[in-house]
Design goal:
4 strands; 665 residues; globular; mainly alpha
C-alpha cells in the first residue's frame, strides 16, 4: 500500500504503469481480505491472537476495512477475559491508526482498567494506562492519572513522554503543573527523537499552550538541523508546517530555499502544509514590516502553479482521492478547489462503488453541490447497494442530506439506501443510529423501525452508558442530534406518539451560551422600528417552542398592522454589553387574534448555503419547514442579497425589509 500511496503523477506513461500496479495490488489485497473474513467466521473458536494479527496486517497496509475490523472487535469482546493493559493498549492504538472505534469495546476496557488503576507502578505500563484510560476517564480517575504522571515523570522514556503529551492533547488537558514538569525533563530527551517525532512533539506542546520559550528555542534549532539535511518532501513539508506554529517565529532564508527546491516533488497534502505556513508568515511579515513578504508571495505563486500542474496531470480518480484525503484549509479552498472539482468531473466515469465513500467525504469537506458528481454517486450507490457497507451508506446519505440535494431518482435512491440500512441496524452502535436517524430526518425520512428502535427506554439507557466513554466532541454532537431528531419526530410524525423530552437539555444549553446583539442585529432592529412604528413591535433573539432561535419576531394582524410586545428597554448604544434572549417559558406564548400571523425574520450567512451556490443546505431548510409547522411565516434574508450593491443604501434596505415583512411581491 505504501508503494502506491507515495507514487507520483509526473508523466502519463508512469500513470499508466501505476494504474496497472494499483489494480493488480488491489485485486490481491481484496482476496486476502475475503479469506481473512472467512477464517474469522469459522464455527471453531477463533484464537484471540489471530484477530490481533489481522488488525496489525490492516495497519501495515493502511487499510481501515470496516467489515474485518468489526469481526475482530467481536472476537475481542467475546474474549474479554484475555484482555490486559498491554493488549488493550495495542488494540486502541491500532484502532486509532485505522480510523475505527467501538463504544462497547471502550466500555469493557474502561471497566477493566478502572478496577486495576492502582496496579501499574512501572513507567511503561502506566504510559499505556494513561493512553487508553485518560481520554475516557471520569473526573476522579483523571485526577489520579495526572497525579501519578507527575510523580513518575522523571522515569519516563522519550517515547513515553510523547505518549503522555499526545494523550493530554486528546484529553484537552492543559494541567499547567504536569505540562511544566514534562517540559523541564524533555531537554535530556530531545536528541533521541527522529524528525517526525520531533514534529509531533512540537505540535503537542503548542496545542497544549506550553510557555517554556527555552524549550521552543531548542526545538527550533533541532528542526532546522533536520530541515537542512531533509531530502524527503513529506518530512520537509511537516517541518515547515510545525515551524510556523512556533510562537513569534519569523521565516528565514533556509526555509524559503528548501521549500522552493522541494515544491515540484510535493503531493497536494504537502503543498497544503507549506502554503499554510507561508500564508501565516506573510501575514506576520506584513504586520511587522518585515522584508520577506515579497519573497513569500512569489513562493506562494510557484506553489500554486505546482498544485495546478499536479492536478492537471492526474488521470486516476482513486489516486487523486487518496491525495485529497488530508487536504483542507484556506489555501486549498481559494486556489485549488474549483480546479479539483473540474478534475473530478473529468474523471467521473471512474466513480465506482469502491470509491464513492472517499468522493463523498471530499464533497462533504468542500461543501460543494456539484450536480453531475452527486447524480453519479447516487446512481452508482443504487446499482451496487449490496456491495457497499451500511456504515458507508450513512456517509453517502449525509452528503445528500447536508447539501439538501435531490438526485434525479430521489425516491428510489433513498428507498434503496433505507432498506439496506434498516436490514442491518444490528451492525450499528447506538450513537451511530442516532446520527443516522438525524441525517434521514433532515432529508424528510422517518423509517418506523429506526424511530421505534431509537425512542425506546432500553436503547436510550444503553446510549447514555456508551456516551460516557466517547470523546467529548462526539458526545456533544450525538446529544445535539438526538434533540434535533426528537424535535423533528414530534413536529413531523405525531403518529409515533414520541414525547418531547429535551426541555431541560435545551434550557441548560441556552443558559450556558449568550446571545449578543451584534451590530447587524442592532442596525436591523432600528430599521424594523422605523417600518413598524415602534421598538416594541419586534423582538430580538426569540426562542420558539422546541427551542429554535430566530433573529427577529413580529406579529401582524389581519390588516397587516403590527401588534405590540411588552416594552423591551434595550440600550442600543451598549452593543457589546447586551446579553438578551426572549424565552417562551419566561414570557409565555399567547394565542393570536383571528387572522393574525407570526413572522420569523432570519438572516442567513454563507454557512447556510453550499459553496459558490445560492442553494439552501439541509439544516436551514429543515428549520424553515419546522417554523412553518409552528405557525410562522418565515422570511429568510440571504447574505448575498443583503450585502449586494442593490441594497447599498439604507433606503433600499428599508424597502427590501418592508416588502418581505408584508409579503409584497
Amino acid at each position: 500500500m505504501q508503494t502506491f500511496q507515495s507514487c507520483n503523477w509526473q508523466s502519463s506513461s508512469y500513470c499508466g504503469h501505476e494504474t496497472g500496479f494499483y489494480t493488480g495490488y488491489k485485486s490481491f489485497r481484496d482476496r486476502l481480505l475475503h479469506k481473512a473474513g472467512q477464517l474469522l467466521e469459522e464455527k471453531d473458536e477463533v484464537h484471540f491472537n489471530y484477530a490481533k494479527r489481522i488488525l496489525q496486517f490492516l495497519q501495515n497496509v493502511k487499510l481501515g476495512y470496516h467489515p474485518l475490523l468489526e469481526k475482530c472487535n467481536k472476537i475481542f469482546l467475546r474474549s474479554a477475559s484475555r484482555l490486559d493493559i498491554h493488549s488493550i493498549s495495542l488494540i486502541f492504538g491500532l484502532y486509532e491508526q485505522l480510523g475505527f472505534d467501538n463504544a462497547e469495546f471502550r466500555l469493557v476496557a474502561k471497566q477493566l482498567l478502572s478496577e486495576t488503576i492502582d496496579d501499574y507502578y512501572d513507567p511503561e505500563t502506566f504510559a499505556k494506562l494513561f493512553f487508553t484510560l485518560g481520554p475516557m476517564a471520569g473526573s476522579k480517575e483523571r485526577e489520579r492519572l495526572l497525579v501519578t504522571a507527575m510523580h513518575m515523570a522523571e522515569e519516563f522514556s522519550s517515547h513515553q513522554i510523547l505518549v503522555i503529551l499526545k494523550t493530554m492533547q486528546k484529553m484537552k488537558c492543559r494541567n499547567s503543573h504536569l505540562l511544566k514538569k514534562m517540559a523541564s525533563i524533555l531537554h535530556k530527551h530531545l536528541d533521541s527523537y527522529h524528525v517526525l517525532q520531533l514534529v509531533k512533539l512540537t505540535q503537542y506542546l503548542v496545542v497544549l499552550r506550553c510557555q517554556n520559550l527555552e524549550l521552543f528555542a531548542k526545538l527550533k534549532m533541532l528542526l532546522f538541523g533536520f530541515l537542512k539535511s531533509s531530502v524527503i518532501p513529506a518530512d520537509t513539508a511537516a517541518i515547515i508546517r510545525v515551524l510556523a506554529m512556533l510562537p513569534s517565529f519569523q521565516v528565514e532564508e533556509i526555509i524559503m530555499n528548501k521549500a522552493a527546491a522541494v515544491l515540484p516533488q510535493c503531493r497536494l497534502h504537502h503543498l497544503n502544509c507549506i502554503a499554510t505556513a507561508l500564508v501565516k508568515w506573510n501575514h506576520y511579515d506584513q504586520l511587522h514590516w518585515q522584508n520577506s513578504s515579497e519573497r513569500c508571495v512569489k513562493l506562494l505563486q510557484k506553489l500554486n502553479d505546482c498544485g495546478f500542474q499536479r492536478l492537471q496531470k492526474a488521470n486516476n480518480l482513486n489516486l487523486l482521492l487518496e491525495e485529497l484525503t488530508h487536504v483542507n484549509g484556506e489555501w486549498f479552498e481559494e486556489v485549488l478547489n474549483e480546479e479539483t472539482m473540474g478534475m473530478c468531473q473529468r474523471l467521473i466515469d471512474q466513480i465506482t462503488w469502491a470509491n464513492v465513500l472517499q468522493l463523498s467525504f471530499f464533497l462533504i469537506k468542500t461543501n460543494h453541490r456539484c450536480s453531475s458528481l452527486l447524480d453519479r454517486i447516487a446512481s452508482v450507490t443504487v446499482e451496487n447497494i449490496d456491495k457497499i457497507h451500511p456504515f458507508e451508506i450513512y456517509f453517502i446519505l449525509f452528503l445528500f442530506s447536508a447539501l439538501n440535494y435531490d438526485p434525479p431518482a430521489n425516491e428510489e435512491f433513498f428507498e434503496y439506501c433505507i432498506q439496506h440500512l434498516t436490514s442491518n441496524l444490528s451492525g450499528f452502535e447506538t450513537h451511530h443510529l442516532v446520527l443516522l436517524g438525524h441525517v434521514l430526518a433532515v432529508a424528510g425520512y422517518f423509517p418506523p423501525v429506526l424511530i421505534t428502535t431509537i425512542f425506546n427506554v432500553s436503547f436510550l439507557s444503553k446510549l447514555d452508558a456508551q456516551l460516557e466513554v466517547l470523546p467529548d466532541t462526539l458526545k456533544q454532537r450525538v446529544r445535539l442530534r438526538l434533540m434535533k431528531l426528537n424535535r423533528a419526530v414530534c413536529l413531523e410524525c405525531p403518529e409515533f406518539h414520541i414525547p418531547w423530552f429535551h426541555e431541560h437539555y435545551c434550557q441548560r444549553v441556552f443558559h450556558n451560551c449568550s446571545s449578543r446583539i451584534n451590530p447587524l442585529r442592532q442596525h436591523v432592529h432600528r430599521m424594523l422600528t422605523e417600518i413598524l412604528g415602534a421598538s416594541h413591535y419586534a423582538r430580538i433573539s426569540v426562542l420558539t417552542p422546541y427551542y429554535y432561535e430566530i433573529d427577529f419576531e413580529c406579529i401582524l394582524d389581519e390588516n397587516k398592522k403590527p401588534l405590540p410586545y411588552m416594552a423591551q428597554n434595550i440600550p442600543m448604544d451598549d452593543v457589546e454589553g447586551i446579553r438578551l434572549r426572549h424565552d417562551i417559558k419566561v414570557e409565555g406564548r399567547k394565542a393570536l387574534p383571528p387572522g393574525a400571523q407570526r413572522i420569523a425574520l432570519e438572516f442567513l450567512d454563507s454557512k447556510a448555503f453550499s459553496k459558490d451556490s445560492r442553494h439552501l443546505k439541509g439544516e436551514p431548510a429543515v428549520k424553515k419547514r419546522h417554523l412553518e409547522m409552528l405557525g410562522y411565516r418565515v422570511v429568510q434574508i440571504p447574505h448575498f442579497e443583503w450585502n449586494s450593491m442593490v441594497l447599498s443604501t439604507k433606503g433600499e434596505q428599508l424597502e427590501y425589509l418592508r416588502r418581505h415583512l408584508y409579503g409584497i411581491q
